[in-house]
Design brief:
By secondary structure, this protein is an alpha/beta fold. 49% of the residues lie in helices and 13% in strands. It has helices spanning 37-46, 49-52, 64-67, 92-101, 117-120, 135-142, 145-148, 160-169, 193-206, 212-219, 223-232, 247-254, 256-269, 276-296, 303-309, 312-316, 320-324, 331-339, 342-356, 364-368, 374-391; strands at 5-14, 20-26, 57-61, 78-83, 104-108, 125-129, 151-155, 174-175, 184-188. Strands 8-7-6-5-4-3-2-1-9 form a nine-stranded mixed sheet, with no helix packed on it. Strand 3, helix 3 and strand 4 form a beta-alpha-beta unit. Helix 13 packs parallel to helix 15 and helix 14 (276-296) runs antiparallel to helix 15. The radius of gyration is 26 Å and the shape is elongated. InterPro entries: HDOD, RNase_Y/CdgJ. Residues 191-375 form the HDOD domain. It holds the Pfam family HDOD. It comes from Marinomonas maritima.
Length: 394
């Protein structure tokens, strides 16, 4: 896998003496003010944050919804900042619970006149952004006793005049912005959060005592994955007429056997920097393998995953043995992918030969003995293209 993808951006946060005391973690685009849930949930499995941030405090902005899906990092001193405009007293119990669990919370642009004292008490930090407030606004707000008692951070400082004035008025504050330090892109090797979730799901599925509730716990670690799995229940193939609101109910409708298939699809569709046609080709091959397997070996499982995962090297720019090393897949699936062994390996070999037009590689005589004609093989291929188009809407 290439090591040149921008994983996140790091912005130095300094004290009045310009000493770096924390890092603000930003989305790679730099244009996104609020952090999207997928970025945050994958951040903690992509890189060694402790090493990258030199064991300093980590700041990042999030939403209350995304906070539910973030792992509590006991080895990191990190502060999650929530927007004051999105909070009210109805969130008091939720925020109190997060504090009890060990989360450090900050509030963005709080106004003493609009935020109830009982809610403001929950937060240890207060962030003020100069792209939304003036210097005078900030100075007035930090004089409020409840806000003054917090650790204060002022962001988006653009010039020395602003910095000088803030150092005088907020001497114990923390400061960041383009004037103080340029945003530094951090590049490296990305391991998608979906891969970690997929590994946990495969392990759980190998345990026959794992319930839909346990499996749902893994799915709900990522809100985007949860949304997509729930969205699946509205597809015609599942005929759901119910309002599905959680991952557990979605799994009960979809079925455990199909769960890994769909998680694998979401994982590949989330890889950035790849052409859309690559995903379509991978899904088409997976559908073709599944359709052919259903005719040749009705009780055989794993054909869809074999077809889908045969495209892993194209998505992650890494050799297949390395990509499969950490995935606890059934040995029949691994041997099919790596050595074309077994019935699954034979199906993959036929499908790849058909896709590339290598007719001499297709055992038509053996297929005929299974009542599979050239016409039926063509029909299965065309059907796989249609199925792939429908799955592409996931």
């Amino acid at each position: 896998m290439k090591n040149n993808e921008v994983l996140f951006c790091r912005e130095a946060v300094v004290n009045r003496f310009s000493e770096t005391i924390a890092y603000n973690i930003l989305h790679p685009s730099n244009a996104i003010k609020g952090q999207d849930a997928t970025f945050l949930s994958s951040l903690f499995v992509d890189i060694n944050l402790t090493e990258i941030t030199q064991q300093k405090t980590i700041f990042f902005q999030s939403s209350l919804e995304a906070l539910y899906n973030l792992p509590l990092q006991t080895h990191l001193h990190m502060v999650t900042f929530l927007n004051a405009t999105e909070l009210s007293e109805v969130h008091l119990d939720e925020l109190s619970e997060f504090r009890l669990q060990g989360y450090q919370l900050g509030i963005i642009n709080p106004s003493p006149n609009t935020i109830p004292d009982v809610l403001l008490d929950i937060f240890s930090y207060a962030l003020f952004t100069l792209d939304n407030l003036t210097i005078n606004d900030v100075i007035i707000r930090v004089k409020d006793p409840l806000i003054a008692s917090k650790k204060l951070w002022v962001n988006n400082i653009e010039n020395i005049e602003q910095f000088t004035q803030l150092k005088e008025k907020v001497p114990n504050g923390q400061f960041s912005g383009s004037f103080i330090s340029k945003v530094t892109p951090i590049k490296g090797k990305r391991i998608l959060a979906y891969k970690a979730i997929l590994i946990d799901l495969l392990v759980a599925l190998n345990d026959r005592e794992s319930s839909p509730r346990v499996l749902a716990g893994y799915i709900e670690r990522d809100p985007t994955l949860t949304y997509r799995i729930i969205k699946l229940t509205h597809k015609a193939i599942y005929h759901s007429q119910f309002n599905v609101s959680n991952a557990q109910r979605a799994i009960e409708i979809i079925g455990v056997r199909d769960l890994i298939k769909w998680v694998g699809l979401v994982m590949l569709s989330s890889v950035l920097g790849k052409p859309d046609c690559l995903f379509s080709m991978a899904v088409s091959r997976a559908c073709f393998c599944q359709s052919l397997s259903a005719v040749l070996f009705p009780n055989l499982e794993g054909a869809f995953l074999v077809g889908l995962f045969s495209y892993l090297p194209s998505f992650f720019d890494e050799e297949l043995p390395i990509l499969l090393k950490d995935l606890p897949l059934d040995e029949n699936i691994k041997s099919a992918l790596l050595e074309y062994k077994g019935n699954l390996g034979g199906i993959l070999k036929i499908v790849e030969a058909y896709e590339s037009g290598r007719w001499e590689k297709i055992p038509f005589d053996q297929l005929a003995s299974k009542d599979i004609s050239k016409r039926l093989l063509k029909d299965l291929y065309v059907k796989s293209l249609k199925d792939a188009r429908e799955m592409g809407t996931l």
